Amino acid sequence: MKISPWLLAFLFCTPIAAQQSPNILVIFSDDHTNQTIGAFGSKLVPTPNLDRLANEGIRFTNCFVTNSICAPSRAVLLTGKYSHLNGIIDNGAERWFDGGQQQVQKLLQQAGYQTAWIGKWHLQSLPQGFSYWKILPGQGQYYNPHFINMQNDTLQETGYVTDLITNHSTQWLEGRDKSKPFFMVVGEKATHRPWLPDVKDLGVYDDIDFPMPENFYDNYENRRAAAEQDMTIDKTMTLMSDLKVNINYNDFQYKRFTPEQYKIFKPYYDKITAEYTAIKDNAAALLRWKYQRYMKDYLMTARSMDRNIGDIMQYLQRNNLMDNTIIIYASDQGFYMGEHGWFDKRFMYEESLRTPFIMRMPGNTMQGHTIDNMVLNLDFAPTILAAAGIAVPQDMQGNAVQALFNPKSSFPWRKAMFYHYYEYPEPHRAAPHIGIRTDRYKLIRFYGPFDAWELYDLQQDKTEMHNLINDNKYKSVIVELKKELKTLASQYADAKATEILAAE
Ligand code: SGN
Ligand code: CA
Questions:
Q1: Is the pTM of this model over 0.90?
Q2: How far is the CA of 83 from the centre of ligand 2 (A)?
Q3: For tag attachment on the chain, is the N or C end more exposed, with fewer CB atoms within 10 Å?
């Protein structure tokens, strides 16, 4: 029998290829929350590509962030360190990320990886340690966005942001040095405010009446920080910018439209404006309408992202990369989809503390696994390094989640997580706080504009409506949790939290 040279090449190359470090692709979205993803139990709308990724990989049902906003979360992804150590405690204009510090991509680059970051970056200083980058300035724009290139030129492109980010990502993959493994982060703009859907998706959810969360009409009793925030769908959400009523097409984000985009976008939101006009005098109906509009716009931006994730996976498949690429999907934090009457994030309450995290291993190993242990965005950098076979530096504060792959492993995984949120008062008046979450309890200490403690028993009160801090039954639980919170604050070298807690 004659063996074809192709078959011979295949037979001899496979073991060599298998020994190579895996490629690592991280798709990192913005404000995309588990309540809207099928793989995490959402029934709102289909998310077929994310669901496929989860079905072929591992879904982490309890992944939490250490500080629930954008720039801080990206800095944690890069450094594997809490905000007080990586320097990005909030989104403030004065907060320039120190790109000189140790970062995951630099360690990968030293180990021979090609590295790239494409899309939303939001860390103000330019990326370092990437063989290639192309980023949105600041929050970026949905339509015909500008990108900053490696020559530091800011140039406008034509198209919808999610499609453009996909194109740039696959183009870079196409032209990369194929003799080296790659590490690429695709930084999505979706599903961030002001939720401008792609014209392709306008109206697809118009016939769906989304169920309101049971605590939509929360009265914030016994919870001062929740009462004093400025992030309700009712009062904070704006008619023109968020809900797109009577759009001013001279506004900067609409002025950029091409005539073709305008021709489809305008009639759709004219119809929405007419709906608003018809009910605007009925306060209760108006609030229900705002909620429906918010859900629809947000979910339409998510739909484009899901489709684009499918396109990226197809690219990998077509190029035989599925068997040697780890694919991670995560968001910078979760988001409120009307729970407590809110949009936005920031608080240590469940919906914004939690973030989606899916990891598909090369060649479908670990297919369909679910891991319920408490993992953190702090673990992303160590996990990526471990996947590449690189030793995790001692000063990274998270752990590689691979320790959880073997249920018999004796690795002492965390039983409690530490949280610290800073940004106040703008833009949403969420008071600064520190806190601890265990499997069952959450203890929060608000500080800054006022001091207050909150305790939730998540077993009894999943929606965190009952602050039990003054309930005598929980006295000993509170003592224990306070002790543990102090230990975590000092273990993570958070001087500010340690100081606040010392006064107790
Ligand atoms: C903008 C938004 C806020 C949002 C922050 C941070 N306002 O300021 O609603 O909380 O970004 O978001 S907007 O009117 O400009 O849309 S983050 O994801 O970047 O942290
Ligand atoms: Ca965000």
A1: yes
A2: 15
A3: N
32 alpha carbon, closest ligand: 2
Q: How far is the CA of 278 from the centre of ligand 2 (A)?
A: 33
Strand 441-446 to 146-148 pairing: unpaired
Q: Residue 298 and residue 335: Cα distance in Å, rounded?
A: 11
Q: Is the CB of 242 under 6 A from ligand 1?
A: no
Tell me the helices (H) and strands (E) count for the chain, helix number first: 14, 16
CA distance readout (Å), 436 to 123, 336, 348, 420, 466? 27, 20, 9, 9, 17
Coil, helix or strand for 298? helix
CA of 122 to the centre of ligand 2 (A): 10
DSSP one-letter code for 60: E
How far is it, in rounded angstroms, from Cα 400 to Cα 20? 20
- Residues near ion ligand 2 (CB < 5 Å) are 30-31, 70, 332
Name which residue sits closest to atom 16 of ligand 1, judged by CA. Answer: 193
Which residue's alpha carbon is at the smallest distance from atom 15 of ligand 1? 193
- Separation between Cα atoms, residue 91 and residue 437, nearest integer Å: 24
DSSP conformational letter for 393 = P
Q: Of 19, 18, 54, 21, whose CA–CA distance to 39 is shortest?
A: 54
Return averaged pLDDT per consecutive 10 residues of the chain, 504 residues in all. 35 44 98 98 98 98 98 98 98 96 98 98 98 98 98 98 99 98 98 98 98 98 98 98 98 96 98 98 98 99 99 98 97 99 98 98 90 98 98 98 91 97 98 98 98 98 98 98 98 98 90
Query: Is residue 164 within 8 Å of 145, Cβ to Cβ?
Result: yes
Amino acid at 127: P
* SS3 annotation, 427-468: CCCCCCEEEEEECCEEEEEECCCCCEEEEEECCCCCCCCCCC
Asked if 399 and 414 count as a contact pair (C-beta separation under 8 A), the reply is yes
Among the atoms of ligand 1, which is closest to the Cα of residue 139?
Answer: 19
Domains within the chain, CATH numbers bracketed:
23-195+304-415 (3.40.720.10), 203-294 (no CATH), 417-502 (3.30.1120.10)
Widest distance between CA atoms in the chain: 83
Q: Regarding beta strands 114-120 and 132-136, do their DSSP bridges make them parallel or antiparallel, or are they unpaired?
A: parallel
Q: The tokens of 415 are what?
A: 């039983």
Report residue 198 as tokens.
Answer: 């792609």
H helices within 57-160, ranges in order?
70-79, 83-86, 104-110
